[in-house]
Structures are given as C-alpha cells and as structure tokens.
C-alpha cells in the first residue's frame, strides 16, 4: 500500500492480513468498506485510506440439512437469498437499505429490520465468523454448526463493533425454512399514546405470532401507498392452517386488509437520499411512550417518516436534512429522550450531537479495542467518539 493510495482492495484473507500489517507498520488509519452503503451516513471516520473487502465474496459452504451457510464478507444479501431460495430456505435478516448490502456489513453494524420481531437481531443469527484484527491476527470465533459452545463468545463481540476490532472476512449464519404461506396485512390505527398502548396489549394477548409488526406514521403510510393515515403492518407466516387461525385472531383485534408482500422491501428502502435517522428504544411495554415522543419530536418537520417495531420497543425517526441547521431543534429534543438513542445517519457536522454520555461503557469499549486494535487504525471515530 503506497503512501499516496486512497483505496486498497483485497480478495482473500492473506491479502487482507498483509494490508493490515502494512497499515500498522506505517500507522495509516483505514476506513473499512464493502458495498459502501454507509458512506453517506455522516459517520466521522478519521481515515483518508479505504480498505475494500467487496471482492471478498462468494458462498463457501452451504449445508441445507443443517440450515447453515458460510459466506465471505462481501457477499450480498440478495445473493444469499437467491441461493437459499432453491432449497426453500432463507436468512431471516432484513436490515434497512438495499438488498445489495453485504453480509459482512450487516454483521459488523448489527443491523436489523422488521423480521427481528420474530427471528432476532444479527447476534441471534450468526453462528461464527472469521476476522483479521488490527494486529494482523486471524481470529475464528464460533463454528459452522448450530450447537457450538466452545471458547469465549467473540462472535457476539465482533457483531455490531463497526469494524473497530477487526475486519470480518467470513460469516456463518443460521437459516430458516421458508414459510409455506407468507401473507401481509395492514390495520388502520389511531396513533394516540393510550390507543397505541392498548393496541400493543391486545396484540400481545392475541393468538398471533407475527413475523413482523411495524407501526408507521401517516407520512410513511403515504410513501408506501397505504393511504395517508397511521397504520400497522403485520406479516404472518407458517402453514396454511396456522396462518388462517392467526388471521382470524388478528381480525378480532381490529379490521385488517391484505397488503402486497412488496411493502416490506419498500419499507426497508424508504429513506430519502439525504436524511437523518435516529433510533429510539425503550422496553417493549413502553413502546407507546417512545412512539408518542417520536411523534411530537418530528411534528414540525415536513416529510418526517416514523415507524416502530412495537414488539421490540424500537422507533426509528427518518428526517429530511437538506438544511442541516433545520435539524437542530429535533436533535435538541432527542437529547431529552429518557430511553436509549442511537444515531444511524446525520450530516457529518452534526455528529455526535445527540449521543448519550456513557463514560463507563466508553472505558470498557476502549479497553477491548486496545486489545484487538491497539493503534486504533480500523474505522477510527466511526462510533461517534473522538479518536
């Protein structure tokens, strides 16, 4: 890697290790990329050089009988879906963004979508991984089988670490059988805090086990061609008899209407080209409180999109930001939120404005990072900290 280079592409683990050792020898910070879908997120990575693992792609092992698949980090989610569909299987991870996103980035960022309601987050679906640390060490964590309990759980540690501990090169994931029937419905709702709370309570008591359950505000409903009023999107899956029974139970909660399956792809890709995205979360039992806060915080912002995974207690606020200064009242409001707030996207000059003070957690994270990347060369600053 020459001093003047801006992008270094690697095609295998050995090349990656050499690139990291070279960067360490010359103290060159690196921004890790694959599909580069996060480059517009404004995250303040303090590195002029990019290390691309996009060419580290391809499925290396697929065992349908074990419901497991191993793929290199640059493999797209669309390719995994295509291959597993031939065996009536799927990877139940649907992070927000296009399906051209890579499995490595999905795991590194810990990104989850509506299916997390039923199948959990990446930490629940990754069985093992390989990564190369900032010291050039090749680390293998977990395994390629569902039952694997040996050693420390480095798999969960690397998942969601944003490449700050090491560059993920390969991932083994748990697959699921595709449901025999997969149907989606839309339920009109009144999004007042008391009514959302009552709806969540009734749904939790109903004989329904949805694959996904998303509450969307009027602006987002309009963008998804579902009308102009707030509504609840419900995805049911299973055998025909099970789905029929769940549909009947759902109709006892409130009237529903069929929704095209494509609505979930549209929801995942609903973010405008320039938008600030902040995720708010509380315990699921307090979802109405989090929803009400988000609704008030975005009330004065034209075109603000808000949706909530009510079974997980997570609300995402998607705010247009053609003028970064117009975000300031919203960011000031977000700072007062009583739950957890996570910034996904912001204009670069607004990071890390809404960050929560987490000094003890930051000390712990720094200690771990010092062990795996002592020179802090991998994605420095991407967590919103000051490197």
Overview features:
single chain; alpha+beta; 13 helices; 25% strand
Topology overview:
Elements: E1 7-9, H1 13-25, E2 30-33, E3 49-52, E4 59-63, E5 68-72, H2 77-85, E6 89-90, H3 103-109, H4 116-119, H5 122-125, E7 126-133, E8 138-142, H6 154-158, E9 166-174, E10 176-177, E11 181-188, H7 193-205, E12 212-216, H8 218-223, E13 231-238, H9 240-253, E14 257-259, H10 263-268, E15 275-281, H11 287-297, E16 305-309, E17 314-320, H12 328-334, E18 340-345, H13 359-372
Parallel strand pairs: 1-3, 2-3
Antiparallel strand pairs: 4-5, 5-9, 6-10, 7-8, 7-9, 11-13, 11-14, 12-13, 12-16, 15-17, 15-18, 16-17
Helix pairs in contact: 7-11
Structural write-up:
The protein has helices at 13-25, 77-85, 103-109, 116-119, 122-125, 154-158, 193-205, 218-223, 240-253, 263-268, 287-297, 328-334, 359-372, and strands at residues 7-9, 30-33, 49-52, 59-63, 68-72, 89-90, 126-133, 138-142, 166-174, 176-177, 181-188, 212-216, 231-238, 257-259, 275-281, 305-309, 314-320, 340-345. It has 387 residues and is of the alpha+beta class. Strands 14-11-13-12-16-17-15-18 form an eight-stranded antiparallel β-sheet. A hairpin with a 4-residue loop joins strand 7 and strand 8 (138-142). Helix 7 packs antiparallel against helix 11.
């Amino acid at each position: 890697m020459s001093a003047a280079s801006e992008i270094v592409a690697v095609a295998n683990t050995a090349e990656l290790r050499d690139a990291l050792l070279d960067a360490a020898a010359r103290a060159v910070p690196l921004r890790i990329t694959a599909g580069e879908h996060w480059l517009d997120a404004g995250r303040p990575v303090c590195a002029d050089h990019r290390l691309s693992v996009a060419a580290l792609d391809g499925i290396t092992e697929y065992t349908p009988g074990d419901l497991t698949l191993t793929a290199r980090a640059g493999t797209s989610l669309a390719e995994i879906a295509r291959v597993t569909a031939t065996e009536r299987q799927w990877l139940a991870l649907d992070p927000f963004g296009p399906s051209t996103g890579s499995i490595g980035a999905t795991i590194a960022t810990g990104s989850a979508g509506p299916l997390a309601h039923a199948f959990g987050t990446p930490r629940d679906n990754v069985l093992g991984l390989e990564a190369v640390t900032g010291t050039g060490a090749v680390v293998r964590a977990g395994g390629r089988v569902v039952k694997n309990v040996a050693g420390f759980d480095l798999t969960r540690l690397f998942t969601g670490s944003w490449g700050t501990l090491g560059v993920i090169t390969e991932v083994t994931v748990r697959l699921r059988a595709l449901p025999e029937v997969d149907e989606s419905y839309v339920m009109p709702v009144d999004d007042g805090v008391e009514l959302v709370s009552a709806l969540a309570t009734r749904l939790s008591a109903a004989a329904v086990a949805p694959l996904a359950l998303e509450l969307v505000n009027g602006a987002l409903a309009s963008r998804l061609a579902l009308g102009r009023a707030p509504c609840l999107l419900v995805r049911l899956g299973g055998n025909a008899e099970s789905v029929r029974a769940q549909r009947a139970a759902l109709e006892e909660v409130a009237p529903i209407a069929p929704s095209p399956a494509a609505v979930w792809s549209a929801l995942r890709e609903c973010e405008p080209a320039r938008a600030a995205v902040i995720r708010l979360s509380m315990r699921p039992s307090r979802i109405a409180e989090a929803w009400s806060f988000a609704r008030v915080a975005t009330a004065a912002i034209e075109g603000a999109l808000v949706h909530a995974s009510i079974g997980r207690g997570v609300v995402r606020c998607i705010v247009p930001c053609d003028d970064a200064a117009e975000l300031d009242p919203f960011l000031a409001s977000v700072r007062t939120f009583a739950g957890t707030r996570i910034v996904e996207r912001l204009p670069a000059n607004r990071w890390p404005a809404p960050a929560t003070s987490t000094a003890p957690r930051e000390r712990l994270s720094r200690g771990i990072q010092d062990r795996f990347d002592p020179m802090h060369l991998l994605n420095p600053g991407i967590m919103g900290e000051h490197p």
